[in-house]
């Protein structure tokens, strides 16, 4: 968040979604998880119904917002990858801010339904955190409707969007790089767009993997009216594993994004010059003459995230005197 503030004037629309995800992770860890940690030392939930509603409501809002943000990242990258500049221009700037605001608004509205009698927030079976009363599926029609919609519309649909978009993007990237390799073209773009795709894939995969066990346990809990069908440990470990999803996103972003590492280097050097004595620079010597036909969709995304400098660098070994055929995302078309 500090690095994003330092380079706020250089940020593009797609980076705002990553910042929004960072805000979700940071605020959730600061505002809500300490209450669960203190309750674990007390061996029981601290406070009464008010603190339980505060914890359950806040965690559900931030959980939904994080899921919507990752789904938006996946869908936007899919549109930019497959539809070239048509959506690349529209999904930028103010429209990305609108997507961020919409994710917060939808998450807040849906999470507030239990405050008005549609479901409720109760302590979880192990008593160290609070969540939606999944077993209220058996109590009334309103509670059953809220529980089913929470799983189908606000959990299953975003997860399917994330998985399908990422699979299609990786498939397209593979064919794009294979087409370049088949023609003997070596570019820094091939390496950079692989890192970009893997970064978002790891973030999406980590989020889905972390929350999948908790979702399965909660779904099973719908069909049981009491807590005796599963030991408390069966709830504790999926919940802790789900909370870990807020921790590793910054490390994934740090590992795959060179621009982020460079900004971190400048930040460390400003506070302590000795910590940043060995500089790791980001090198980009790029021009538009590498591939005919203008920039590719993946190239546009790399320029936005600072992983490419504006084009393609072709090594001398890749240059010959044969006519170069035009490469597009649909494949290699003969000139």
TrEMBL record:
<dbReference type="Pfam" id="PF00001">
    <property type="entry name" value="7tm_1"/>
</dbReference>
<keyword id="KW-0807">Transducer</keyword>
<feature type="transmembrane region" description="Helical">
    <location>
        <begin position="235"/>
        <end position="256"/>
    </location>
</feature>
<feature type="transmembrane region" description="Helical">
    <location>
        <begin position="144"/>
        <end position="164"/>
    </location>
</feature>
<dbReference type="GO" id="GO:0004930">
    <property type="term" value="F:G protein-coupled receptor activity"/>
</dbReference>
<keyword id="KW-0297">G-protein coupled receptor</keyword>
<feature type="transmembrane region" description="Helical">
    <location>
        <begin position="196"/>
        <end position="223"/>
    </location>
</feature>
<feature type="domain" description="G-protein coupled receptors family 1 profile">
    <location>
        <begin position="1"/>
        <end position="253"/>
    </location>
</feature>
<keyword id="KW-0812">Transmembrane</keyword>
<keyword id="KW-1133">Transmembrane helix</keyword>
<dbReference type="InterPro" id="IPR050125">
    <property type="entry name" value="GPCR_opsins"/>
</dbReference>
<feature type="transmembrane region" description="Helical">
    <location>
        <begin position="96"/>
        <end position="118"/>
    </location>
</feature>
<keyword id="KW-0472">Membrane</keyword>
<feature type="transmembrane region" description="Helical">
    <location>
        <begin position="55"/>
        <end position="76"/>
    </location>
</feature>
<dbReference type="GO" id="GO:0016020">
    <property type="term" value="C:membrane"/>
</dbReference>
<dbReference type="InterPro" id="IPR017452">
    <property type="entry name" value="GPCR_Rhodpsn_7TM"/>
</dbReference>
<feature type="transmembrane region" description="Helical">
    <location>
        <begin position="12"/>
        <end position="35"/>
    </location>
</feature>
<protein>
    <submittedName>
        <fullName>Opsin 8, group member c</fullName>
    </submittedName>
</protein>
<keyword id="KW-0675">Receptor</keyword>
<dbReference type="InterPro" id="IPR000276">
    <property type="entry name" value="GPCR_Rhodpsn"/>
</dbReference>
């Amino acid at each position: 968040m500090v690095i994003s503030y330092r380079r706020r004037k250089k940020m593009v629309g797609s980076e705002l979604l990553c910042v929004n995800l960072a805000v979700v992770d940071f605020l959730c860890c600061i505002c809500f998880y300490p209450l669960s940690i203190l309750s674990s030392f007390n061996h029981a939930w601290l406070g009464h119904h008010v603190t339980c509603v505060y914890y359950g409501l806040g965690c559900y809002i931030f959980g939904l917002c994080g899921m919507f943000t990752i789904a938006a990242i996946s869908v936007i990258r899919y549109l930019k990858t497959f539809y070239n500049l048509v959506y690349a221009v529209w999904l930028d700037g103010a429209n990305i801010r609108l997507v961020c605001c919409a994710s917060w608004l939808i998450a807040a509205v849906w999470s507030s339904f239990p405050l008005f009698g549609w479901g409720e927030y109760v302590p979880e079976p192990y008593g160290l955190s609070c969540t939606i009363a999944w077993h209220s599926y058996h109590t009334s029609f309103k509670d059953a409707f809220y529980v089913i919609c929470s799983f189908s519309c606000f959990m299953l649909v975003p997860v399917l969007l994330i998985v399908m978009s990422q699979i299609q993007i990786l498939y397209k990237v593979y064919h794009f790089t294979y087409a370049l390799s088949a023609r003997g073209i070596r570019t820094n773009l091939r390496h950079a767009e692989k890192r970009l795709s893997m970064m978002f894939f790891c973030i999406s995969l980590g989020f889905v993997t972390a929350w999948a066990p908790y979702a399965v346990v909660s779904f099973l809990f719908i069909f049981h009216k009491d807590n005796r069908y599963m030991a408390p440990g069966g709830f504790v470990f999926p919940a802790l594993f789900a909370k870990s999803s807020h921790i590793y996103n910054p490390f994934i972003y740090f590992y795959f994004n060179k621009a982020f590492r460079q900004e971190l280097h400048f930040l460390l050097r400003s506070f302590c010059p000795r910590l940043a004595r060995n500089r790791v620079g980001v090198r980009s010597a790029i021009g538009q003459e590498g591939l005919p036909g203008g920039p590719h969709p993946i190239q546009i995304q790399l320029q936005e995230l600072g992983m490419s400098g504006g084009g393609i660098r072709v090594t001398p070994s890749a240059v010959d005197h044969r006519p170069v055929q035009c490469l597009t995302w649909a494949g290699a078309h003969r000139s």
